[in-house]
Amino acid sequence: KPLPVAAFTSTDECPYFPTTLTDASSVAGGATITNWNWDIADDGNVDFTTQNGTNTWNLGGTYYVELMVETADGCLDSIVNTITVFPKPEAAFSNTTVCFGTATDFTDNSTVALNNVINTWDWNFDDGNTSTMQSPSNLYGSHGFYDVTLMIETTNGCRDTVINQVEVYGMPVVDFSMPNKCEYDSVSFVNNTTKP
Description:
By secondary structure, the chain is mainly beta. The protein has strands at about 5, 10, 20-25, 25, 35-40, 55, 60-70, 75-85, 95, 100, 105-110, 120-125, 130, 135-140, 145-155, 160-170, 175, 190.
Protein backbone atom coordinates (compact mmCIF):
# COMPACT_ATOMS: atom_id res chain seq x y z
CA LYS A 1 0.00 0.00 0.00
CA PRO A 2 1.56 3.31 -1.04
CA LEU A 3 2.19 5.98 1.55
CA PRO A 4 0.85 9.48 0.90
CA VAL A 5 3.17 12.47 0.83
CA ALA A 6 1.67 15.36 2.80
CA ALA A 7 2.26 18.82 1.38
CA PHE A 8 0.53 22.19 1.27
CA THR A 9 1.13 25.76 0.21
CA SER A 10 0.08 28.96 1.95
CA THR A 11 -0.18 32.66 1.25
CA ASP A 12 1.70 35.29 3.26
CA GLU A 13 -0.77 37.86 4.58
CA CYS A 14 -1.16 40.81 6.91
CA PRO A 15 -2.95 40.53 10.26
CA TYR A 16 -6.74 40.23 10.02
CA PHE A 17 -6.52 38.95 6.44
CA PRO A 18 -7.19 35.24 5.80
CA THR A 19 -4.21 33.04 4.96
CA THR A 20 -5.15 30.48 2.30
CA LEU A 21 -3.99 26.91 2.97
CA THR A 22 -3.99 24.75 -0.18
CA ASP A 23 -3.47 21.00 -0.04
CA ALA A 24 -0.73 19.73 -2.37
CA SER A 25 -0.49 16.17 -1.03
CA SER A 26 -0.04 13.21 -3.34
CA VAL A 27 -0.09 9.43 -3.30
CA ALA A 28 1.12 6.96 -5.92
CA GLY A 29 -0.32 3.75 -7.32
CA GLY A 30 -3.87 4.89 -7.84
CA ALA A 31 -4.60 5.26 -4.13
CA THR A 32 -6.64 8.21 -2.95
CA ILE A 33 -6.36 10.57 -0.02
CA THR A 34 -9.64 10.70 1.85
CA ASN A 35 -8.89 12.56 5.09
CA TRP A 36 -7.22 15.88 5.82
CA ASN A 37 -6.65 17.00 9.41
CA TRP A 38 -5.32 20.52 9.99
CA ASP A 39 -3.74 21.63 13.26
CA ILE A 40 -3.73 25.40 13.04
CA ALA A 41 -3.00 26.29 16.65
CA ASP A 42 0.07 24.01 16.93
CA ASP A 43 -1.49 22.34 19.96
CA GLY A 44 -2.06 18.79 18.72
CA ASN A 45 -5.78 19.31 18.12
CA VAL A 46 -7.54 19.11 14.77
CA ASP A 47 -9.02 22.49 13.85
CA PHE A 48 -10.69 21.58 10.55
CA THR A 49 -10.93 18.61 8.21
CA THR A 50 -11.56 20.08 4.76
CA GLN A 51 -9.01 19.53 2.01
CA ASN A 52 -8.24 23.26 1.80
CA GLY A 53 -8.93 26.06 4.22
CA THR A 54 -8.17 29.50 5.53
CA ASN A 55 -7.15 30.93 8.85
CA THR A 56 -6.81 34.50 10.09
CA TRP A 57 -4.11 35.55 12.54
CA ASN A 58 -4.44 38.88 14.33
CA LEU A 59 -0.75 39.47 15.02
CA GLY A 60 2.29 39.46 12.80
CA GLY A 61 4.78 36.67 13.39
CA THR A 62 5.68 33.08 12.57
CA TYR A 63 3.15 30.29 13.03
CA TYR A 64 3.34 26.54 12.57
CA VAL A 65 0.59 24.59 10.82
CA GLU A 66 0.45 20.81 10.55
CA LEU A 67 -1.41 18.89 7.86
CA MET A 68 -2.07 15.17 8.43
CA VAL A 69 -3.38 13.17 5.46
CA GLU A 70 -4.76 9.64 5.29
CA THR A 71 -5.52 7.39 2.33
CA ALA A 72 -8.52 5.14 1.93
CA ASP A 73 -6.20 2.29 2.93
CA GLY A 74 -5.37 3.96 6.26
CA CYS A 75 -1.84 5.04 5.36
CA LEU A 76 -0.76 8.32 6.99
CA ASP A 77 1.69 11.16 6.54
CA SER A 78 2.03 14.64 8.00
CA ILE A 79 3.98 17.82 7.45
CA VAL A 80 4.53 21.01 9.44
CA ASN A 81 5.01 24.26 7.51
CA THR A 82 5.94 27.73 8.71
CA ILE A 83 3.36 30.44 8.09
CA THR A 84 4.48 34.07 7.90
CA VAL A 85 2.08 36.83 8.92
CA PHE A 86 3.53 40.23 8.18
CA PRO A 87 3.39 42.77 11.04
CA LYS A 88 0.77 45.50 10.97
CA PRO A 89 2.30 48.98 11.09
CA GLU A 90 1.14 51.54 13.63
CA ALA A 91 0.34 54.93 12.10
CA ALA A 92 1.19 57.98 14.22
CA PHE A 93 2.16 61.59 13.68
CA SER A 94 2.77 64.83 15.51
CA ASN A 95 2.40 68.41 14.30
CA THR A 96 3.26 71.97 15.16
CA THR A 97 0.50 74.25 16.44
CA VAL A 98 0.58 77.55 14.59
CA CYS A 99 -1.33 80.74 13.96
CA PHE A 100 -3.09 81.39 10.68
CA GLY A 101 -0.62 82.34 7.95
CA THR A 102 2.09 79.91 9.11
CA ALA A 103 2.42 76.43 7.65
CA THR A 104 1.72 73.48 9.93
CA ASP A 105 4.59 70.96 9.96
CA PHE A 106 3.68 67.28 10.22
CA THR A 107 6.14 64.64 11.48
CA ASP A 108 5.56 60.96 10.74
CA ASN A 109 6.04 58.87 13.91
CA SER A 110 4.76 55.59 12.47
CA THR A 111 6.43 52.29 13.36
CA VAL A 112 6.49 48.70 12.16
CA ALA A 113 8.11 45.68 13.81
CA LEU A 114 10.34 42.85 12.64
CA ASN A 115 12.58 44.92 10.35
CA ASN A 116 9.78 45.68 7.91
CA VAL A 117 9.70 48.96 6.01
CA ILE A 118 7.01 51.63 5.61
CA ASN A 119 7.21 52.97 2.06
CA THR A 120 3.90 54.76 1.47
CA TRP A 121 2.42 57.79 3.24
CA ASP A 122 -0.94 59.23 2.18
CA TRP A 123 -1.92 62.45 3.96
CA ASN A 124 -5.30 64.17 3.79
CA PHE A 125 -5.24 67.57 5.51
CA ASP A 126 -9.04 68.02 5.57
CA ASP A 127 -8.86 71.20 3.49
CA GLY A 128 -8.67 69.68 0.01
CA ASN A 129 -4.88 69.33 0.15
CA THR A 130 -3.03 65.99 0.20
CA SER A 131 0.57 64.78 0.24
CA THR A 132 2.60 61.61 -0.22
CA MET A 133 5.71 62.92 1.54
CA GLN A 134 6.75 61.23 4.77
CA SER A 135 6.75 64.44 6.83
CA PRO A 136 5.07 67.27 4.90
CA SER A 137 3.87 70.79 5.67
CA ASN A 138 0.49 72.35 4.89
CA LEU A 139 -0.58 75.99 4.82
CA TYR A 140 -4.25 76.24 5.79
CA GLY A 141 -6.47 78.87 4.19
CA SER A 142 -8.28 79.75 7.41
CA HIS A 143 -8.07 79.19 11.13
CA GLY A 144 -10.01 76.39 12.82
CA PHE A 145 -9.95 72.68 13.50
CA TYR A 146 -9.01 70.06 10.88
CA ASP A 147 -9.22 66.27 11.05
CA VAL A 148 -5.95 65.15 9.44
CA THR A 149 -5.69 61.57 8.16
CA LEU A 150 -2.46 59.62 7.65
CA MET A 151 -2.58 56.22 5.94
CA ILE A 152 0.66 54.22 5.80
CA GLU A 153 1.58 51.03 3.97
CA THR A 154 4.56 48.68 4.24
CA THR A 155 6.45 47.00 1.42
CA ASN A 156 4.39 43.87 2.24
CA GLY A 157 1.11 45.73 1.70
CA CYS A 158 0.05 45.99 5.35
CA ARG A 159 -1.74 49.24 6.21
CA ASP A 160 -2.83 51.38 9.11
CA THR A 161 -4.62 54.73 9.41
CA VAL A 162 -4.74 57.39 12.09
CA ILE A 163 -6.84 60.58 12.33
CA ASN A 164 -5.76 63.45 14.58
CA GLN A 165 -7.41 66.83 15.07
CA VAL A 166 -5.19 69.80 14.29
CA GLU A 167 -5.92 73.39 15.30
CA VAL A 168 -4.81 76.52 13.47
CA TYR A 169 -5.16 79.57 15.71
CA GLY A 170 -6.79 82.70 14.35
CA MET A 171 -4.80 85.94 14.31
CA PRO A 172 -5.94 88.46 16.94
CA VAL A 173 -7.31 91.83 15.83
CA VAL A 174 -5.45 94.43 17.86
CA ASP A 175 -7.49 97.48 18.91
CA PHE A 176 -7.80 99.87 21.83
CA SER A 177 -9.83 102.91 22.78
CA MET A 178 -9.45 105.89 25.10
CA PRO A 179 -11.69 108.72 26.19
CA ASN A 180 -11.06 112.32 25.18
CA LYS A 181 -9.13 114.10 27.89
CA CYS A 182 -7.57 117.46 28.49
CA GLU A 183 -3.85 118.03 28.54
CA TYR A 184 -2.20 116.74 31.71
CA ASP A 185 -5.22 114.59 32.60
CA SER A 186 -4.57 110.91 33.17
CA VAL A 187 -5.84 108.65 30.40
CA SER A 188 -7.14 105.10 30.76
CA PHE A 189 -6.67 102.90 27.72
CA VAL A 190 -9.17 100.11 27.03
CA ASN A 191 -7.90 96.96 25.33
CA ASN A 192 -10.39 96.02 22.59
CA THR A 193 -8.27 93.29 21.04
CA THR A 194 -10.35 90.36 19.81
CA LYS A 195 -9.50 86.80 18.91
CA PRO A 196 -11.44 84.94 16.21
